[in-house]
Amino acid sequence: xxxxxxxxxxxxxxxxxxxxxxxxxxxxxxxxxxxxxxxxxxxxxxxxxxxxxxxxxxxxxxxxxxxxxxxxxxxxxxxxxxxxxxxxxxxxxxxxxxxxxxxxxxxxxxxxxxxxxxxxxxxxxxxxxxxxxxxxxxxxxxxxxxxxxxxxxxxxxxxxxxxxxxxxxxxxxxxxxxxxxxxxxxxxxxxxxxxxxxxxxxxxxxxxxxxxxxxxxxxx
Length: 220
Fold this sequence. Notes:
The protein is mostly helical. It has helices at residues 3-11, 15-37, 40-56, 69-95, 107-111, 117-125, 132-143, 148-155, 159-195, 206-212, 216-219.
């Protein structure tokens, strides 16, 4: 089906065409939302809200153009942005409340539903430290595979803004990744050293310890 035909059917409220659109882009939208939020449960909500908003605003789709993926990812980006703002407000509220009892964390079990566990871990560890606009343009250009023009259209900003944000995002990501790797290496080294037993008083190390062991003949 040609892109213009898809657009026309979506604009007309063709539910079958919209179902095909969902089947084609649901996973892409979900992964994009997961990268932006770093949370699988939030990604599910963002994906649902994205397609609901797409259906409600279907008449705003231009009659001519390319695939509708960038349009959906633009909506998802806005929904993820709203989610982060909401999380910030909820965290500020919770910080003022008495600390609740600890409950079991099922995040790891939920993460098994995706094959991108390492990618999501990197999102939580490093990308969460990027500024919102940098994270959004990186997710759209690098992971979603949109070009500058499509990303600009999805975010509603000039192409030049996309280029500058992406450049800053890449530089900052490299720096943060280097810091993270150095931190991981340092923690692994410290953990290894803490596991190694200290040499007690009177212990003999190295070759001397081997020589000091009783022979099989002498031990019988």
